[in-house]
Amino acid sequence: MEDLAKVRDELMAAVSSAGDLAALDAVRVQALGKKGRITGLMKGLGGLDPDARRQAGQALNELKDEVAASIEAAKTDLAKVAMDAKLAADRLDVTLPVRPSPEGRIHPITQTMDEMIAIFADMGFVVAEGPDIEDDHKNFTALNMPPGHPARQMQDTFYLPPGADGLGNVLRTHTSPVQVRTMTSQAPPIRIIAPGRTFRSDYDMTHTPMFHQIEGLVVDETTHMGHLKGCLIDFARAFFEIDDLPLRFRPSFFPFTEPSAEVDIGCSRAGGELKLGNYGDWLEILGCGMVHPKVLEMSGIDSSKYQGFAFGMGIERPAMLKYGIPDLRTFFEADLRWLKHYGFVPLSVPNLAQGLNG
Ligand code: PHE
Question: Domain span at residue 73?
């Protein structure tokens, strides 16, 4: 039989010189595999006489255990080395800047709503919401437009089948029902803005059946028309980014406000080009007024104690004016080339401290 001490030295040397897990496994196969050296020696035991077989068998078993243990130990060491190398190589640099130009764009309507929200939020308004499908009561009756009221006809309403409660439903024709939702669910002081979709059956150059509005409502014990004016003047100047933009409050009528006004901003139409600023001409942008006492009462608010103002403004027109978008209908055509051109980079969220539009 071969000199076991020599076999041992050679196998141990092979184990310690294996540089990685694959090489170590090859050593294991050479030593302990089916055709391995120790396995071969074990097979040779059969030819020995019983005494010699017992002795040699014991020595071989010890050798086998020793080699197997040293392979296991080397395996643990090499696995650790391999893991360390992987950890060092797989580094992720979290200080790398984000991709400067993501593919997606924010739609100008969303951008404009976010800008308006940023301005009103800075004045202390909170965002409120209501559903697109509204009941007849909140869209009309609770806003002082009972059934048969002439103002109902002016709105080109989309009527829907009544709900389970028997109440008539409509696609809301304005965001004003959110006034009702707010006043019936929370006590004054109230200071909310409600941006959202609105619907009227109308389609031409300047009207789409779905459009957007933003509603404002303030109710407390002291708010008066002067506050309404100051609020809207500050808003319009911040939104259009024109410090001396003039505003004109023109007496008007809405069933849910008294007194009511329509608000115009200064502009010029010289040379067929519309330009905003102090140029002597006027462009209407919104409706507003002091909340009608009947509207407060219908929503359970004591009109001898509380008062306030409301306003409602379209979003598309200011967006077109601010961003030079000539055709209203393109807003809703879902044309990716248009969105690429007029859209906004998603990572520059509008805020007053850093700028409304990046
Ligand atoms: N809801 C009105 C409209 O859609 C706008 C408005 C809102 C007017 C609030 C006054 C007060 O035209």
Answer: 4-90
